[in-house]
Amino acid sequence: MEMSSSMTDSKIVLSSVHILLTYKCDSECDHCFVWSSPHAPGTMSIHQITEILKQATDLKSVNSVYFEGGEPFLFYPIMLKGIELAKQSGFDAGIVSNAYWAEDEDDARLWLKPLANLGVADLSLSADDYHGEDESDRRVANATRAAELLGIDVGVLRVKSVDGCAANDAGDVFFRGRAAVKLAEKVPFRGSSTLTSCPEEPPDIERVHIDAYGNVLFCQGISIGNINNRPLKAIIEQLTPERHEFIGPLARGGPAALAEELSIRVEEHYADACHMCYDIRCKLRAEGRFIEALQPDQSYGD
Ligand code: SF4
Question: What does the pLDDT read at residue 290?
């Protein structure tokens, strides 16, 4: 469903597709946006990945494909084949992982060598207190050294702990998904009327995530279409961000505008914009509104 808008309509030029290979993860972190856990369903087959790559190619503007989750290394042969196919399609390939597999540097080299041989452009490693502090840091350090030796560009995505010491290079937690439920109460709240911008910075949309259910996601839990019903090219070309029921209000004034335009009663204070946005979306789902767009259930812990 699309709404009218007084803003100038814009079009999307997608440069990156992020494949959520699985919602399954070896960990169950409090700050996880998508409620990943060892028990989460929603894992792609190689046939689904092949179809996504074909549809991304049809768009002609996409130049990079990321494999993430959940934890994509849990399905290593599928991830490897997916990267091979992505490279054959002419895309740069990247991976996001928590490095659970990097017990020591030699092990890490064995895991990463096939990826280096395929020419993986970027390895982003998640490190934070929520992955188990020292253990997480040790594995991430092993994976970082191995990647550097193999010539893979590697970076660390470090998230601040809300109740511990924060490393200087750490980014803020966004309180959506499990983080909204488990962590938001631990930080100072702000007035809801001040939460007037969305960190995804709509209406500019340069990347989408696609999951095993076919959802094309603007943000975790906000689907702009499903590739099982409509090709990615049509979903992207037919989307006018300013007229979309969620992206439009978020572009005009963040979650504060979203609540007002969708007539949802909200709390007076929230931990951040994502906390408010997630609460609005949960309330809409509870009322049975916009269910098709507020997908997948996994992103709401259902
Ligand atoms: S405000 Fe909403 S749409 Fe924007 S990044 Fe946060 S959760 Fe996502």
Answer: 98
What six digits make up the tokens of 70? 């959940």
Asked if residue 263 is part of any domain, the answer here is yes
Q: What pTM was estimated for this model as a whole?
A: 0.94
Q: What's 62's domain CATH number?
A: 3.20.20
Sequence-ordered strand ranges (E) for the chain: 16-20, 64-68, 92-97, 122-128, 154-159, 190-191, 207-210, 215-219, 222-226, 269-270
- Tell me whether residue 122 is in a domain: no
Alpha-carbon dihedral of residues 145, 149, 152, 155, nearest 10 degrees?
20
* Separation CA 48–CA 292 (nearest Å): 21
Q: Do the domain assignments include residue 200?
A: yes
Whole-Å CA distances, 46 to 14, 52, 85, 168, 210: 23, 10, 10, 39, 14
Name the residue with the closest Cα to ligand 1, atom 3. Answer: 219
Burial 95-111 (b: 16+ CB within 10 A, else e): bbbbbbbbeeeeebbeb
Which residues line the pocket of ligand 1, CB cutoff 6 A?
A: 174, 176, 198-200, 219, 222, 250, 255, 273-274, 277-278
Domain-embedded: residue 38:
yes
Tens-place pLDDT, residues 227-269: 999 999 999 999 999 999 999 999 999 999 999 999 999 999 9
The neighbouring-strand residues paired with 22 are: 43
- Give the position, in ligand 1's atom list, of the atom nearest the Cα of 202: 4
Write out the residue range of the structural domain in which residue 42 sits: 16-97+174-300
Q: What sign does the dihedral 163-26-222-201 (CA atoms) show? A: positive
Domain count, the chain: 1
